[in-house]
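Listing S7. Sequence submitted for prediction.
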Amino acid sequence: MAYLITGDAAEAEDAAQTGFVKAWLALKSFRTGAPFRPWLLQIVANEARNRRTARSRRPAIELDTVADSLSASQESSPEASAITRDLHGQLVETLNRLRSEDRAVIVARYFLDLSEAEMADMLGCRRGTVKSRLSRAMGRLRQNLGTRPDVDWRQGDV
């Protein structure tokens, strides 16, 4: 989560470490019975956002590892592999152009595989708000991806 927010591996490591320390110090305030993962991710995400703001630069997401693992499992020919890499590259570029709020909700759902309830806890809002934010973010992502006759972005061709 920290890397996806900061776009810098070293900065993300520092944010995660500081976030873990803050979580450790705040364990007394953790609600018994509440899900732990979203609580911890919220602390780390806040720390990463603070660091990104302090650096005053826009983050870029590099999802090469994810793209490589997805394309490796789908490779059937060198041509198919090249097309898949191209499509993944376009998806990552488009994701980088979105607002940080849109990137955060898309990454939380589709890359971190958080449930709506976990996302609501992490973002500090209701599940309905998460649904609407995700829907709007996905709409903007689709709009920015444009139309390609050879790809149905909604069907998971990428």
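Caption to Listing S7: primary sequence and predicted structure tokens for the chain studied. The chain has a mean pLDDT of 78. The two ends are 22 Å apart (CA to CA).
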